[in-house]
Amino acid sequence: MAIQARRGKKYSALSAFEAQDRLFLSCFIVTSHILRMIRKVNIPTVTITTQRLIVIEPFFMPIPGAPCCNNCDPDLFEVDVVTVVPPARERPGRGSKPTAELTAAVTDRLNLWCSVTVSCDFPRQSIITGKLILPNKVIEKISDRPQAVTTPDIFFSSIEWKWGTHDNCRYGNEVVAVIGDILRDYPDAEQEKRDAAQQEKAFLELTVKANKQLREKHKAIFQECWHAVFNITTEKMVTRGRGATK
Fold first, then answer.
1. Residue 84: left (phi > 0), alpha (psi -120 to 50), or beta?
2. Contact status, residue 150 vs residue 114, Cβ threshold 8 Å
3. Which residue of 65, 130, 172, 219 could cross-link 152, Cys pair, CB 3.0 to 4.6 Å?
4. Are residues 131 and 157 located together in one domain of the fold?
5. Nearest Cα to 28, choosing from 185, 20, 46?
6. d(CA 117, CA 162)
7. Lowest mean pLDDT across 54-68, 153-167, 170-184
8. What does 93-120 look like in DSSP terms, one character per residue?
9. What is the C-alpha separation between 181 and 150, in angstroms, rounded?
10. pTM, full prediction
């Protein structure tokens, strides 16, 4: 049984016009000569394989004092700078579920902050502006996870709040400060346990490291004492053996 060979993808044949265009574009990109002198030669009588690009006189010369092209005057043409867009900000963890007292405290303080901010920045516009600056939906999201509100970056992704990122995160920083004051009055028991465990682990690591350094120090002192005693010499010959006469 004959095995049929695998065939590659078939590409349609290029017309003379398409082949000439591709050749012209390749030459235009890789050439190091003046770009104004690269022109496509249209010779319909020759085949595709014999078509070529030649350098002829340009259509028009550049204005005196004006840049010609990036090959002739590379310093006068700005180089495109490739900028890398930073990845999306990491989503913070939700943390433990807040208590009812903490949720109520966060909601009340945020409403108070909103009222004070509107009265200071937007006087006589509290009816509509207050709901737009800090909507109830944003207040609910913040009160649902206050432990995660540590930086204004959270208002870019997890808790989307346009006013929190406006004017160099002015309102965002104020809200973060408000939440920080509240959390100091309502410490998280689970977080305190985790912090205590981390502190204990760090203390044990430091203790082991200190004991190791002390042991190495004692070892070095012992070696110095041993060599000092071993190298003591006397005027009499010392013999080793059993008994007092040896």
1. beta
2. no
3. 172
4. yes
5. 20
6. 16
7. 54-68
8. P--SPPPHHHHHHHHHHHHHHHHHHHHH
9. 11
10. 0.45
With b for 16 or more beta-carbon neighbours within 10 A and e for fewer, the 80-118 pattern comes to eeeeeeeeeeeebeeeeebeeebbebbeebbeebbeebb
> pLDDT tens digits for 60-76?
677 777 778 878 888 88
| Residue 212 in domain | yes
Residue among 117, 161, 121, 162 nearest 142 (CA): 161
* Same-domain pairing of 179 and 105: yes
* Stretch among 16-20, 57-61, 205-209, 216-220 having the lowest mean pLDDT: 57-61
Q: Is 221 helix (H, G, I), strand (E, B) or coil?
A: helix
DSSP helix, strand, coil percent of the chain (3-state; round to 5) = 55, 0, 45
Q: What is the band of 53 on the pLDDT scale with cuts at 50, 70, 90?
A: very low
The residue behind tokens 């490291």 is: 209
Please give the average per-residue pLDDT across 21-46, as a whole number. Answer: 66
Host domain of residue 207: 193-223
**108 and 51 both lie in a single domain:** no
